[in-house]
Amino acid sequence: MENSTTRKIGILVAVVVILSVVVVIQFYRQKAVAEKQLNEERYLRMVAEENLQQVKTGVSSMETELDRIKKKSGNLEKMLVDTKAMNSDLKKQIDDVSKQKDELQSRIADIESKQKAEKDNVQPAQPLPVQK
User: What letter would DSSP give residue 1?
Assistant: First the structure.
C-alpha cells in the first residue's frame, strides 16, 4: 500500500508540477504580450511627440513669418499714405503753378495788346518849327 500511496503522491506532485509549469508559461506569454504592447505604445508616443515637436517648430516659424509680413505690410501702408499725401501736395502745387501761368499769360496778352494799341495810336512826330 505504501507503494500505491507513494505512487499516488508522485502522480499528484507530477500533476501539480505540470500545472505549475503551464501556469508559469501562461504568465510568461501574457507578460511577453504586455511588454510588446507597452513597447508599441512607447514607440507610438515617441513618434507622436516627434511629430508634435515638428508641428510646433512649423507653427513657430509661420508665426515669425506672419509677424515679418505684418511689419512689412504696416511699412507699406505707411509708405502708401505718405505717397498719397505727397501726390496730393504735388497736385495742389501743379494747380497753383497752372493758375499763376494762366494769370501771367493773361497779363502778357493784356500788355501786348496795350503796346500794340499805343503803337497804332502814336502818330509820327512832326518836326518842330525852327525859330529864326
Answer: -
- The C-alpha angle with vertex 55 and arms to 50 and 59, in degrees rounded to 5, equals 150
Question: In the 8-state DSSP scheme, what is residue 128?
Answer: P
- What is the distance between the alpha carbons of residues 84 and 80, in angstroms, rounded to a whole number? 6
Is pTM, for the whole model, over 0.85? no
| Residue range 11-54, pLDDT digits in tens | 999 999 999 999 999 999 999 999 999 999 999 999 999 999 99
- What is d(CA 26, CA 19) in angstroms, rounded to the nearest whole number? 10
The whole-angstrom separation of Cα 67 and Cα 73 is 10
26 grid coordinates:
501562461
How many C-alpha atoms does 117 have within 13 Å on its Cβ side? Answer: 6
Q: What's the rounded Cα separation, in Å, for the pair 100 and 94?
A: 10
Residue given cell 515669425 in the structure block: 64
